[in-house]
Amino acid sequence: MPNAANNPVLIKHHRITLRDFTPADCDGFVAYQMDARYRALYNQPDSPETRTTSTALFERFLGWQAETPRKNFQIGIFDAKSDEILGCIGLRQQDMPAHVAVMGLELAPACWGRYRLALDAINLMLDYGFNQLGLGTITGSTGNGNRRITHLATWFGATLTQSRPGPDWMTQKGWHEVDWSLTRETWLAKNNFK
């Protein structure tokens, strides 16, 4: 099985492109994180500190690209035609057992409710993780109030494994954190791959 851990990520699809961020993408990333809807979800103020935090997060993603071996892949989701940033998706292996990664997905508020976009991004990233990085298990977590992500995880064959109190922003909404896990074998069987 190939190991693409130190190669730049570029995954093309007819609707979206998943690719490593470049410094030129920073403004678009910070802009969607500063959207009032995004800040309201995480109870963040419209402040210079919030903007600085988003910029620092983006710079961390760029820094991960230079690590050898590369353990964390947080890449942009872009419109295939316009190259507009639609969100980001990641697989993080740092501090995880061998062949296990944590997936995270974030769509820009303008894309909330675009289920096909989320499905495409997750499917492409699962394929990359299992078939290019040689992962055996991909896990994730979400708030129980985020039923869309929970539904997507189970649609791909993931098993809900644990529920626990979440961070403050979840608690304030009356949510708790739900963990899920998906093995390569289950994903292959669910998707009828040979």
From TrEMBL:
<dbReference type="Pfam" id="PF13302">
    <property type="entry name" value="Acetyltransf_3"/>
</dbReference>
<dbReference type="InterPro" id="IPR016181">
    <property type="entry name" value="Acyl_CoA_acyltransferase"/>
</dbReference>
<dbReference type="InterPro" id="IPR051531">
    <property type="entry name" value="N-acetyltransferase"/>
</dbReference>
<protein>
    <submittedName>
        <fullName>GNAT family N-acetyltransferase</fullName>
    </submittedName>
</protein>
<dbReference type="InterPro" id="IPR000182">
    <property type="entry name" value="GNAT_dom"/>
</dbReference>
<feature type="domain" description="N-acetyltransferase">
    <location>
        <begin position="16"/>
        <end position="185"/>
    </location>
</feature>
